[in-house]
Amino acid sequence: MRVFALTGGIGGAKLALGLAKVLAPDEVAFVVNTGDDFEHLGFHVSPDVDTLVYTLAGEANIETGWGRQDESWQFMRAAEQFGLPTWFRLGDRDLALHIYRRQRLAEGATLTEVTRETCRRLGVAQPVLPMSNDPVRTRVLTPDGSLAFQHYFVRDRCRPTVTGFEFDGIEDASINPELSALLGAGASSDRPGAIVICPSNPFVSVDPILAVPGMRDMLRSAGAPIIAVSPIVGGQAIKGPTAKMMRELDIPASATAVARHYRDLITGFVLDECDASREAEVADLGLATAVTRTVMSSLDDRIALARDVLAFAGA
Fold it and tell me: 25-39, 103-117, 184-198: which has the minimum mean pLDDT?
């Protein structure tokens, strides 16, 4: 049996690393949001895919929380001299990956093929599957109009008020065929043991994955428990603007609200210890519940949470 983990950026990658540490490479596969992707300085930038690949490879930049470790910034300083936009920073070591991706995409490779090649070159054995090979672009709706996600998130530092989200291109997107093959009908030994929604932003990291036509039905028909881990702990997001977005959308910034957001898909929900008092609220939604420590400050924390999630799914 294989575990499938749906993930976005930094928060989701933490649990993904824990799963990778406790499962063999052929026992886990990662499905990654590509709604954050965009074109910048002539490169196809895939932030969530790269964050996960660098994390699994032991190459993630701990200082910045994104990009590649031991980074330098000569390219960005030179780009600034020429008046090029530098609000989204590509480090010198990170730039090599982007040059490689641009070349392979221009040669006709799919994003999945490029990602697989990148994983192999960086020593990542687990399958890392973009949700789709087709372009999907998340846009954040604000009172002053819509913003491309990276403009909202990086350039404007999440300051604009959020009124909603759109996923451009989603109607024409197809599920990654390699994911369809892995989740397709087969012998019982090939069926997924669990589907895990990592503690990523529900609206801009997980919803784009689930919005790909046919994705929800495929996940439901897989015959596996679908477990979501709350990205909200004690009313706050451990990383990113999730709680801010929820408040601006008039949604309570709580673990219960996240569970309600997923309730039509999931079978179980994992809360942090500090939200134990909300367990009954989540159970009232018809969901199985588990309470454990979900804040992942160390590698041991990531591994411990992965073990707890897998034990919960098994139960």
Answer: 184-198
Say what the pLDDT of residue 186 is.
45
Contacts of residue 264, defined as CB under 8 A and 6 or more positions apart, other chains included, come to none
Mean pLDDT of 69-75: 95
Listed residue (257, 160, 168) closest to 211, CA to CA:
168
- C-alpha to C-alpha distance for 287 and 293, rounded to whole angstroms: 19
Q: What are phi and psi of 295, to 5 degrees?
A: -75, 120
